[in-house]
Automatic annotation (TrEMBL):
Pathway in which the depicted protein is active: Nucleotide-sugar biosynthesis; UDP-alpha-D-glucuronate biosynthesis; UDP-alpha-D-glucuronate from UDP-alpha-D-glucose: step 1/1
Enzymatic reactions: UDP-alpha-D-glucose + 2 NAD(+) + H2O = UDP-alpha-D-glucuronate + 2 NADH + 3 H(+)
Annotated catalytic residues: 264 (nucleophile)
Annotated family: Belongs to the UDP-glucose/GDP-mannose dehydrogenase family.
Binding sites annotated in the UniProt record for substrate: 149-152, 208, 253-257, 261, 327
A GO BP entry: polysaccharide biosynthetic process
UniProt-recorded name of the protein: UDP-glucose 6-dehydrogenase
Domain UDP-glucose/GDP-mannose dehydrogenase C-terminal: 320-421
The protein's Enzyme Commission number: 1.1.1.22
Length: 437
């Protein structure tokens, strides 16, 4: 099948490569020249495990190309809209500029029976509005919403082996003619047993924002428990293990720490609240304000704990922050709690060095005033305190005895609760976790 993928960021670049891997002829289109020339040369413009190899593999087959020219979408049967929907500046709502302009730019190239398939996360109601736009310009084409659930760091496998596929179609019916076409696109996954649900447009849009809101709520719930554990002298990691053994609760996404960040959960819960307000249903989502507040409080809490760890003052303390990405296996620093904590510490007088295996270039663009060090060894040298803020494998595997030889002060704050307390304390470290005694 011929497919165009419009928007080649974290979502679209992976989607384009995976669709080609599944055997389709794919063109990836983006307005960003730099991104397109990198992708065309089989280089991933961001770090995502497996993407570089996949790009090389599929480009050799001749089934994947990249361009900035929207005219290349002509002749494709399915057009995936994969552009970003960032938070509006100074407001909670989502900025739909990129979605609107992608769809408008595509309109002249649509033919009868083409599918325009939205994958971007959008406020409920957007798809119906875009369906009207498509209908007016290309009456025989179809607009669908097919939300994407991939996680950064696992994007390739999540796209090739999704948990579920959701197709939102205008009449919500299995018999909608576009359903069969999308089934052909995803034939490999469907044959592999991936469940597929057909819904109406608003339900499909809501599935995505509801899923991300649930995940954010789960993280803030356990972080609220961490606050209580701190107050009561209990251990939130054991509490999470114990409640997680109840199937109805489950252990995943119950890791207390510095909270969630990234380009999705924070802006999605805010956009969801803003949209609920527009729909007159704001009361339904006021709890998300609390979810957001608990999450932001984590960052302040870590700064306070770091101050305590440094004996009451941050002034002149050499602090090494391990991790800048919002999560491991990613170079994404959008709304990264690790970086925002590093910046706060620096503002309050600490001398901060940030290290990360992949995200330093992006971090330096966002916070040029921080000091960055690529080598973990060099970053550890002479530190008065260490903060583990993104749980990359190499930080989890640090040997407390070896690390002790490199630093000036044996103090560590484990912002992700991933280190073995007993091992670090036995090696002579002052260890602080979040919600751990
Ligand atoms: C999230 C969703 O998990 C995906 O399903 C969704 O497709 C994606 O957003 C999106 O909307 O595009 P992602 O932002 O890649 O994916 O990252 P997550 O794995 O969800 O992690 C989000 C944040 O929560 C990270 O900062 C992570 O460190 C934090 N987290 C996660 C915790 O603090 N504790 C946990 O137990 C789990």
């Amino acid at each position: 099948m011929r497919i165009s993928v419009i928007g080649c960021g974290y979502l679209g670049a992976v989607h384009a490569a995976c669709m080609a891997k599944l055997g389709h002829d794919v063109v990836g289109i983006d307005i960003d020249d730099g991104k397109i020339s990198e992708l065309a040369a089989s280089r991933a413009p961001f770090f995502e495990p497996g993407l570089k190899e996949l790009l090389g593999e599929v480009q050799e087959t001749g089934r994947l190309s990249f361009t900035t020219d929207m005219a290349a979408a002509a002749g494709s049967t399915v057009h995936f809209i994969c552009v970003g929907t960032p938070q509006k500046k100074g407001e909670n709502g989502a900025d739909l500029t990129f979605v609107d302009s992608a769809v408008n730019a595509l309109l002249p190239y649509l033919s009868a029976n083409d599918l325009v398939v939205g994958k971007s996360t959008v406020p409920v109601g957007t798809a119906a509005r875009l369906a009207t736009t498509v209908q007016q310009s290309a009456p025989a084409a179809y607009l669908l919403w097919n939300p994407e659930f991939l996680r950064e760091g696992h994007a390739v496998s999540d796209t090739l082996h999704p948990d579920r596929l959701v197709y939102g179609v205008t009449d919500g019916s299995e018999d909608h003619p576009a359903v069969q076409v999308l089934d052909q696109v995803y034939a490999t996954s469907l044959q592999g047993g991936t469940p597929r649900l057909v819904t109406d447009l608003p339900t499909a849009e809501l599935v995505k924002t509801a899923a991300n809101s649930f995940l954010a709520t789960k993280i803030s719930f356990i972080n609220a428990m961490a606050e209580l554990c701190d107050a009561a002298g209990a251990d939130v990691t054991l509490l999470a293990d114990a409640i997680g053994m109840d199937d109805r609760i489950g252990r995943k996404f119950l890791n207390a720490g510095i909270g969630f960040g990234g380009g999705c959960l924070p802006k999605d819960i805010r956009a969801f609240m803003a949209r609920a307000g527009e729909l007159g249903a704001d009361q339904a989502l006021t709890f998300l304000r609390e979810v957001d507040a608990i999450n932001m409080r984590r960052r302040t809490r870590v700064v306070e704990l770091a101050r305590e760890l440094c004996g009451g003052s941050l002034l002149g303390q050499r602090i090494t922050v391990m991790g800048a990405a919002f999560k491991p296996e990613s170079d994404d620093v959008r709304d990264s709690p690790a970086l925002s904590i590093a910046a706060q510490l620096q503002l309050q007088g600490a001398v901060v060095t940030v290290t990360d295996p992949k995200a330093l270039a992006n971090a330096a663009r966002r916070f040029p005033e921080l000091h960055y060090e690529e080598s973990t060894d060099a970053a550890l040298q002479g530190a008065d305190a260490l903060l583990l803020l993104t749980e990359w494998r190499e930080y989890r595997d640090l040997d407390p005895h070896e690390t002790l030889k490199q630093v000036s002060g044996a103090r560590i704050l484990d912002g992700r609760n991933v280190l073995d307390i007993d091992k670090w304390r036995a090696a002579g470290w002052i260890y602080r976790g979040l919600g751990r005694p």
